[in-house]
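Reopening this one. Same input as before:
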Amino acid sequence: MLVWFTMLAALGLVNLFSELSVLKALNPYYGIKLLITYPKGFYILGGVFLCTTGAEALYSDLGHCGKWNIRYSWILVKSCLILNYMGQAAWMLHYHNGDMITAEMIEKGFNPFYGIMPGWFLYFGISIATAATIIASQALISGSFTLVSEAIRLNLWPKLKINYPTETKGQLYVPAVNTLLFAGCIGVVLFFKKATNMEAAYGLAITATMIATSMLFANYLVLHRRKPVLVYLYLLVYLTIEFGFFYANLEKFPHGGYVTLVVGGLLFIVMYAWFRARKIKTDM
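Same output, byte for byte:
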């Protein structure tokens, strides 16, 4: 992962100098101005939000790595990502005069990320990106194992066999969930066929996750008797931002976003049915 993020920063930095005007993007004034003046500027947030995806993986990694590891590494990660995005923007402005990217261009394989790579480095870049994708999938795997394990303890999920391969805290393996993830991944790939078609479902899923996390954290603050004013202030700030992104992503609902609700709804039905069944059995 260090090689991956170092590559992102280096590629972005090399191309950044071709159009230093992109540094203006660090000023939030231009983003706010675009949202206000551009007729459909608000819906651009649906695309912008895809730049933040991956941050939700921190929720599952926190339990396995600890908060300080995440805090220190996130400084490097965010810096590398910003450099790479700015490098792509500079490359677009310099070589394409900032022309609008059309659906036809994307269909033909136009991709600024690989465009900023030198020709001789392209195959190395693709190999590193593929390896990083495989490694990054562990967040989904470890997160799913952890969530299901906790759900079983809370009597919100049917009992499943859990293996503990090592004595290290947080290391667990749930065979049934692993099989379910395999079937789900194959099914999603066959359904969407292209990565670009998955953006709608992905963006909606992440915004829903972040909203749920904010509400759970607010509940945590209430249970620990924090000042109500601070709790409401926290909710006002975070939910305003998150619901803004959520509303922008709703435009993608007919284009694949509904898959998120279908999958989430099925999981909720299983959890609710199990919880109600145990409650009925206990009351008998």
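So the earlier flakiness isn't reproducible anymore. For the record, The radius of gyration is 22 Å.
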